[in-house]
């Protein structure tokens, strides 16, 4: 695989560290991403998203989710079994995991629910008023002339 040196990007820009870090992660040689547990990311509205993670075999108490440094970290630790079981086939993986999702600026987690073996995490992008587009009124030429005449 090709490797890219992003050092010139760091040298020539100010304030784009997150973009450069994201590029580093995407282009990293670590191509093998963990496939467990499977998950979906869906857009549920103009500024709303939902991450659904298959967590069969885990209780709500064994699951954890936290937001730290613009990253959503979902983890699970299975409590030790108190009853000794003998499996003829064990196809439900209940191994511990930690899954990280990078969050964009202004994306907030609004809630999480554990329903039917799925962990649903709802997110919303809340753009501050200062960053929202605003309409600028354009004066007509006759209004400018009238305004100047009123001042004179």
Write up this protein.
There is one protein chain. With 152 residues, this protein is an alpha+beta fold. The chain has 2 domains: 1-33, no CATH class; 35-151, Immunoglobulin-like (Sandwich). 18% of the residues lie in helices and 32% in strands. It has a 4-stranded antiparallel β-sheet, with no helix packed on it. It has a 3-stranded antiparallel β-sheet with strand order 3-4-5, with no helix packed on it. Strand 3 and strand 4 form a beta hairpin. The longest helix has 11 residues, at 17-27. The radius of gyration is 25 Å and the shape is elongated. The relative contact order is 0.16. The model has no long low-confidence stretch (mean pLDDT 81).
**Unreliable stretches covering 5 or more consecutive residues:** none
- What count of helical segments does DSSP give? 3
User: Given the C-alpha coordinates, what overall shape results?
Assistant: elongated
The CATH class of the largest domain? Mainly Beta
Residue fraction in strands = 25-35%
Following the backbone from N to C, one meets helices and strands in this order, namely HHEEEEEEEH
Query: What's the gyration radius in Å?
Result: 25 Å
Structural class: alpha+beta
Number of discrete domains: 2
How far is the first residue's CA from the last residue's CA?
Answer: 72 Å
Please describe the biggest sheet, giving its number of strands, its sense, and whether it closes into a barrel: 4 strands, antiparallel
Order of the strands making up the biggest sheet = 1-2-7-6
> CATH topology of the largest domain, anyone?
Immunoglobulin-like
Number of strands: 7
Residue share in helix = 10-25%
């Amino acid at each position: 695989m090709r490797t890219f040196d992003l050092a010139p990007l760091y040298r020539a820009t100010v304030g784009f560290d997150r973009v450069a870090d994201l590029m580093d992660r995407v282009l990293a040689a670590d191509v093998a991403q963990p496939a467990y547990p499977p998950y979906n990311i869906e857009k549920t509205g103009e500024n709303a998203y939902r991450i659904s993670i298959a967590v069969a075999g885990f209780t709500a108490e064994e699951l954890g989710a936290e937001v730290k440094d613009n990253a959503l970290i979902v983890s699970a630790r299975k409590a030790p079994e108190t009853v000794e079981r003998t499996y003829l086939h064990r196809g439900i993986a209940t191994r511990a995991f930690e899954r990280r999702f990078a969050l964009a600026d202004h994306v907030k987690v609004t809630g999480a629910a554990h329903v039917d073996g799925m962990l649903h995490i709802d997110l919303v992008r809340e753009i501050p008023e200062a960053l929202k587009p605003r309409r600028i009124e354009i004066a007509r030429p006759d209004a400018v002339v009238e305004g100047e005449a009123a001042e004179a």
